[in-house]
TrEMBL record, chains A, B:
One Gene Ontology term, aspect cellular component: cytosol
Official protein name in the record: Molybdopterin molybdenumtransferase
Naturally occurring in which organism (per UniProt): Acinetobacter brisouii CIP 110357
Protein's UniProt keywords contain Magnesium: yes
One GO term of the biological process aspect: Mo-molybdopterin cofactor biosynthetic process
Amino acid sequence: MSGCGAEHGLISIDQALALIAQTVQPLGREPVSVEQALQRILVDDVHAPVALPIFSQSAVDGYALAAARHPIDAGQCFQVMGEVRAGQVADVVLEVGQAVRIFTGGKIPEGTTTVARQEIVQLHVEQQIELTDDLAKHADIRDAGEEVQAGQVLATQGQSLGVGAIAALCMAGVQHVSVYRQAKIAVVVTGDEVASHVDELQQGKIFDANTPMLKAWCQQHRLDAEFFLVADQETALTELLQDLKSRFDLIITTGGVSVGDYDFVRPVALNLGFQQVFWKVKQKPGKPMFFAHSQSAERCCYLLGLPGNPAAVYVALQVYVSSVLRGLAGQSIAPAWVSAVLQHDLKPDRRERFLRMSAEIQQGQLQVTALKKQQSHMLSNLFESNFLLRVPTDTVLSAGTLLNGIYLD
Amino acid sequence: MSGCGAEHGLISIDQALALIAQTVQPLGREPVSVEQALQRILVDDVHAPVALPIFSQSAVDGYALAAARHPIDAGQCFQVMGEVRAGQVADVVLEVGQAVRIFTGGKIPEGTTTVARQEIVQLHVEQQIELTDDLAKHADIRDAGEEVQAGQVLATQGQSLGVGAIAALCMAGVQHVSVYRQAKIAVVVTGDEVASHVDELQQGKIFDANTPMLKAWCQQHRLDAEFFLVADQETALTELLQDLKSRFDLIITTGGVSVGDYDFVRPVALNLGFQQVFWKVKQKPGKPMFFAHSQSAERCCYLLGLPGNPAAVYVALQVYVSSVLRGLAGQSIAPAWVSAVLQHDLKPDRRERFLRMSAEIQQGQLQVTALKKQQSHMLSNLFESNFLLRVPTDTVLSAGTLLNGIYLD
């Protein structure tokens, strides 16, 4: 399957994404209450258990009336029999000439032929009201079921539940939904170069950007992740991955996937029985990316080995980790590419590139401008960047060209 | 200040936003660790405590060389004196004709004149290497400070810290930042019409969409909010608001702000000493919106009284609650309007409207299409909606018109 072994050379970004799509299988389902379902993905279509509105209700504060003929002429009077507030039973049955005071959302009493908003009603003594304007039949009534029929499909399989969807499900009385189980994610940061203290910086160490980046990204996406720091040593890495592969759905590693003498992630994973799906993508940043999977009795564990350079990790999160997670949640793995208008010329490169851009919409057009400091060990342009542009190989690109990219998140 | 009292009629959306901008003062500051700072807003500019890179380092796996002249011709040999891995001290000083094995990120030893990537190096016995290609001076070296100078401004006041910004701060060794204190938010849902059980639906009650909507929205935005459900009774509401106004920075109410006989929010707030900033905005949905503030010894408490209709609540969250929160966090309160191309004609309306749209970017153009079921008691189109279009009054709008709106979140 999925090109394991066959691909020794570099594959393209599209090939890598296609291999992810072929390889990743959705996780199982679990029931959650709708109030706990923010950003979760639906396993099934959801049908409305009730109609919306549930009953016919007033659209305004005013009076429900019963008239024999419509339109009712201004000046006509009605006898007020009572009051219906929102949330109360409308236990009166109106006869012609009768009215009840009613408020927005109040249940329309039986016998009602129309509703007069309070602005066209004059209240007299003895509970009598007079219309100050003509009134059509069935005015300002929200009919039961006019928005949604009971049984109608509200939301569909694969949909991510945002704030609006949660509210709409609750309004229809949906209390539980089946969602894809959340992936259990292990993040393994390799590398001896990470400083714990400022004092170590002069000894060739650097501050770790990858761990906080991955932590923040998991937090942002409400992902369940455990973090592990491991030295660049074969035995330590072997022990760790051996343990993780039966306990996690996805292992993300950073560093140690290139061809340096201390790049142990790939050989260790292969020794542990992981099947390679691909290794090395013809892209910049992030060429030595490694993707593999291991099927054990307990679970299928996917391993996405990212390079150690932080910009490569950042790009991989946006493009590849997101894709794998969408696949695990039963969605199309395809990144949400949108087309954008390049604001300047771009020099060609032999590899496809992901460039960090500043994007803004002007006059309805998505315009993108490349930021400086694009090298794979540089992150400082992320203070300004909100878009990742995908730049094809070997072409001189001029200002005005349409290219695909994704919004960063 | 801020038009309290002067505005008895309906004000425009722009006037309402301008009054919010004039009224809302930023909260105080608090220090947080960068790893806890996701989505928090910077109070001050942040300067880089160190240069990036911190020291000159190799950009590749290969060999650091010392040569007398450059370019070095292919065929020249060097004596390998040792090895520098990333994270290790480079304690050797190279003399002409010497080399060290070096890995990506490894600290460049003193005396180095260039770096040869391993692809152009042949290793002989006796720790001798031969170049298989010509090599320029200072190749594949990342110079100290080439990305960021120590002391340089990295991030600016008012910036929201996303995943990329967190990572970039960590890479520069920034461990703590000052952010605006998070608003303490109380959400008060009024209304007797909310059903606790399905059985109550036939008694004129409805399912509550506002509470789960507000909860999900606060969760999504990592906001600290407490929720209160109160009956449509003046005394109950008075007691609750009296208690809340000294404990919270922002009270959001839903329902009870219109002119119905049971709309107690505004009179109760005014009785408790809240000063009205505005009441009623010429918009659809959400006309009877109320904004007030109360300055006590403990704090300034803002009260945003939203209508009870769930679509009005949803729109107000996106437009007005967001604006107030941005103001409390020292940012410009202005919504992130972007211009979009309307895909069809639109009929005029006497009020400015917020329409729930489906937006997509095609050929670099943001195209928006209105969804059905736009009435203020309807939410079912939120399964498809990702954009809120702001439609001006009294104008026939034709397909192709550019209008402002905001992405929903």
